[in-house]
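<backbone_tokenisation>
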Amino acid sequence: MKIFRNLFLILAASTILFSCISTDDVGGGGTGGEGVNILANLYISNNVDGDITIYDFTAGAGIFFRTLLTGSASAEGIYHDKETDQLVQASASQSVLNAYQNVSNIENGNTVNPIFSSGADFDSPHDIAVNGNVFVVSDNSDLDNDTTTDEGRFFIYTKSDTGFTLRNTVTVDFAVWGIEFVGNDLFAVVDKTADIVSFSNFASTNTTDATIVPTKRISIAGLTRTHGITYDGITMVLTDIGDPSSDSDGGFHIINNFLAKFADLNDGETLLINQQVRVSGSFTSLGNPVSVAFDDNTRTVFIAERLNNGGRILFFNNVEAGGNLAPSFASDLSGASSLYFENVN
């Protein structure tokens, strides 16, 4: 039995939870979780000030949060390595990957400085995917300055103890957003569509600068425009921003036994709606859910909602039935753009 099952108890015990974290404005101050047993963390980037917000889920004391101040003005993409306690964030304003050390021991409100950074390589980052020492950044810049055509890039870095090395860059003929490694295969959303793609053995197959094509591309029935993607256990979760200007038509799709369902489809086919669970509707507070994290142990979905209230963090429990669910937890966080969830044990 995994200790983080206590998240359900934390979310249910609203009087404890709300005493530790403000539901009105996460950026307005916090308590800090010194001296308590941390079970899990949610790491958050934002594209308003580039700071790092960390939710510390504790045993019996609710959820504490910390905001670490960075030198970045805007950031999208975040990853934490619990073995080294290094956090990597893609700075959109600086066009670099920044690595920060010992973030678990840094108190709320303190400034953090990177121990090292990549070169200023990318233009419009949206997500980071990690497989071993390979770090991939999705970049959604308009390469040909033609708004009628779509293209995107993946910047492939190798990380050592002392820095990042840009190994190569590959280009695709579609706009990109969220990316996720599942084993050695890279899955990516096709921005402006309801499609996702896979690249088999991505890092070992694509070792030079080149234009590449996906191994497989499928459509997700019932989805309008996807952004966020995550995979944990055997489940994939995708977000749907719908109309980018609407603050009420967002949702997310839960696909259990994803790899088996994906393998059953040929290139160009559609995953049917009866093979998924969709959460959407007026109670969800979903307008533009741009990033998602998922904990398979507790079946909890974490959402970075970018449009409503200028940015919010939403948790959803009991999602298996789908439908018009209200979030179990909601808190404002201006500019919320990227999430990374991690169990401590």
Summary: Residues 65 and 327 are 19 Å apart (CA to CA). Residues 14-20 form the longest helix (7 residues). Residues 1-33 have pLDDT under 50 and may be disordered.
